[in-house]
Amino acid sequence: MNTETVKIKQGKTKTTQRISGSEAIIKCLLAEGVDVLYGYPGGAIMPVYDELYKYQDKIHHVLTRHEQGAIHAAQGYARVSGKAGVAIATSGPGATNLITGIADAQIDSTPVVCITGQVSSHLLGSDAFQETDIVSISTPVTKWNYQITKSSEIPEILAKAFYIAKSGRPGPVLIDITKDAQFGEFDFEYKKCEKIRSYNPVPKMDMAQVKAAAELINKAKKPFIVLGQGVILANAEEELKSLVEKADIPAASTLLGLSALPTEHELNMGMVGMHGHYAPNVLTNDCDVLIAIGMRFDDRVTGNLETYAKQAKVIHFDIDPSEIDKNVKTDVAVLGTVKETLSALIPLINPNKNEEWHKKFKDLHQIEHEEVIHPEINPTKEKLTMGEVINAINKETNGEAIIVSDVGQNQMFASRYADFKQSKSVVTSGGLGTMGFSLPASIGAKMGAPEREVVAIIGDGGFQMTIQELGTILQTKVPVKMVVLNNEFLGMVRQWQELFFDKRYASTVMTNPNFIKIVEGYGIQAKRVTKRENLSNAVSEMIASNEPYFLEVIVEKEGNVFPMIPSGATVSDVRLK
Amino acid sequence: MKKEIYTISVYTENNLGLLNRIATLFIKRHINIESLTVSSTEIDNVSRFIIVAFITEDQVKKIIGQIEKQVDVIKAYYHTNEESIYIQSALFKVKSSLLFDERQIQNIIKKSNSQIVTVSREFFVIEKSGRKEEIDKLYNELAPFGIMQFVRSGRISVTKEEMKISEILKKQLN
Ligand SMILES: Cc1ncc(C[n+]2csc(CCOP(=O)(O)OP(=O)(O)O)c2C)c(N)n1
Question: From ligand 1's centre to the CA of A434, what distance in Å?
């Protein structure tokens, strides 16, 4: 059917356009407000790249140096902007290279839409060149996926993809599009998706549960909030703050919830979990009401479940019904977006003061400060520590930067020591713990929040997992600041070997290349710091730069992150050394 | 916690790939599926999966949560044997000569409430629908005479309580 016959048949001028599937894909992306996407071309996706060429003034395609870089960049973009990130790749190896990032986005609830090319539909199942069954491969790690074999399916399926990725508990969606569907022509018309009959993204809030929660909170003498990324995903930072302040409840954050409440807020007790702060971990097993908001009781947060907060009544606010009672048995479950449920809760909460309870936090914090934090930031040893580097960055950025940490000790030091003034300042791989995440994610983060300073904190191991993305920085000139904390070890694994494997450092020693030369080879400014007296100047020069900047800091080789809850131990058995 | 046989009924859109998606949820938790039946339902474009697994109640609750979370799943339920009416079918292929030489076989067929669906010169086929134990019993009785082929279907079941799938679908569209 061409445009003309549409008019005749319907008797009115309906403006459908006859275009190719690949052009339709671009038009769908534009209709969804996509202005940047990350990807890598190849045979099965070439028709789409041809359209990207034609539409280059409307939509910016960032050529990463590996498809893993593309998906992590899309994740970084999504995490800071609240919009869906888009990654695009060819069939076969292009598609499989996305998988790590897709799994990461799934476990960290990040909205991304992945588009992969596929061999022509008549070749499906013939082991054609670069054919992989990416729909099957990606099934357990996507929120939804679909294979398009006819161009006419493109608008409806892409509309669904964006709706599913962003709605409810966000997540990754993969759409695999055969090459013939990219070539085929059809009458294009786009309608956003607003409903899917089998899909209920936001469960209905039950006011009775909200009341029950309010009752428990009002009666509590030792209430304690653990907040997660759900607060940020729901844009409920203000509601959280009101609740915390009105009922005077100490609050601590999971790794991904960091920055939802400013670090400096007097009721912010820091981070819970394996390397979290001392007071909130210990007092988890002392509180009388544990209020979990938009978090999922990950085992890195709870330690041994058998002894986790057994004394407390547990209230769980979450959007995902399958999280209720999954790991921790709740007394009251409040379903819905936490923005909606906290808004309903706050008017029912009585203003309160819990001074004695706060004092417990303060006293324990004092112990942690003296035994861990102060010596970390003001070391007496010659070598620099990771904590003092993060502290120097705090001073230069005023706590206003987005910190994109990698995985390992660098991540835990960044999370423990960085100051956050505003929400969406933390981008890190939490649930999957994907080394190599930070460098490409920081590229996406800077593009998603160009007005903000973006600092990537990376270990020497993780840096080398996606080091090729320096090429993306070279080509796009995206001004990210990169800090490699070089301890010449796979530090976090080495720490475990030291503590639990009698210092048998099996395959954790790194012989590293000259990072400065490599980075300079990419035309990026680079500097190495080995001495304390040069640290603050170097950091200040880096932050002052308007261009991409790389700083390598040689740190203590065998520094450890403390406090630590050894795996399998209970949260209150947190070790200070 | 005690393991038990649970029948999980899942109502879904009739979409490609959904069988795989649901199966991965079991595999991820290292749960073995005892039997699986997928078929259309009384509602257009809605499929029903009937999955039988030997698991604890805690496991079944969690897996239902994960199944329901899937975009193309409309609703999932679990039931114990007491809460549902269920059967499975089995076909037994036996040498025709036995039917004439072994008089007992005719008795077994009669007593077990099974039927002969086909008789040919070489073999005949007995069909039996019922509970798993009834089929096992018939199998054990026929086995000594030699069974050429035996197939057993997955469980099909209807619940004692009402499942309001059409209403759920209507509600989610409004
Ligand atoms: C892709 C991947 N492989 C392996 C691991 C296991 N792992 C966790 S932390 C770590 C060490 C990280 O070393 P480095 O990047 O140098 O950072 P550091 O801990 O020294 O700060 C390793 C190997 C992982 N998280 N991700």
Answer: 8
Q: Do B19 and B78 belong to one domain?
A: yes
Domain of A450, in residue numbers = 382-555
B chain contacts of residue A167, beta-carbon cutoff 8 Å: none
Mutant choice from B71, B166, B169 vs A, greatest count of A C-beta within 10 A: B71
Helix, strand, coil percent values for chain B (each to nearest 5) = 35, 40, 20
Closest CB from B24, B68, B71 relative to A143 = B71
Q: What is the pTM of this model?
A: 0.95
Same domain, residue pair B61 and B140:
no
The verdict on whether A492 is a catalytic residue reads: yes
Whether residue B93 is found in the same domain as residue B144: yes
The CATH code of the domain that includes B19 is 3.30.70.260
The answer to whether the CB of A136 falls within 8 A of the CB of A95 is no
DSSP secondary structure string for all residues of A208-220: HHHHHHHHHHHH-
The Cα A323–Cα A315 span in angstroms is 12
Q: Is B28 on the interface with A (CB under 8 A)?
A: yes
CA neighbor of A437 nearest in space, from A401, A467, A402, A413: A467
Calculate how far, in angstroms, residue A411's C-alpha sits from the geometric centre of ligand 1: 10
Find which of A124, A139, A318, A324 to mutate to test the B interface (most B CBs within 10 Å of its CB).
A139
pLDDT of A3 > 80? The answer is no
Same domain, A181 and A225: no
User: Facing residues of A486 across strands?
Assistant: A554
- One domain, residues B11 and B70: yes
A196 touches chain B (CB under 8 A): yes
Q: How far is the CA of A435 from the centre of ligand 1 (A)?
A: 6
Note whether A148 and A254 are same-domain residues: no
Beta strand extents in A205-293 (DSSP E only): 223-227, 251-253, 268-271, 289-293
Q: Angle, nearest 10°, between helix axes A386-397 and A532-544?
A: 40
Q: Indicate which residue's Cα is closest to atom 4 of ligand 1.
A: A435
Q: Do both B113 and B97 map to the same domain?
A: yes
Residue B166's pLDDT band (cuts 50, 70, 90): confident
**Residues B78 and B28 occupy one common structural domain:** yes
Domain that holds residue B96: 87-152
Residues A400 and A337 in one domain: no
Same domain? A347 vs A269: yes
Residue B131, chain A, CB below 8 Å: the answer is: no
**Residues near B156 by beta carbon (within 8 Å), at least 6 away in sequence:** B37, B39, B50, B86, B87, B88
Give A276-324 pLDDT, tens digit per residue: 999 999 999 999 999 999 999 999 999 999 999 999 999 999 999 999 9
Tell whether B16 lies on the interface with A, counting CB pairs under 8 A: yes
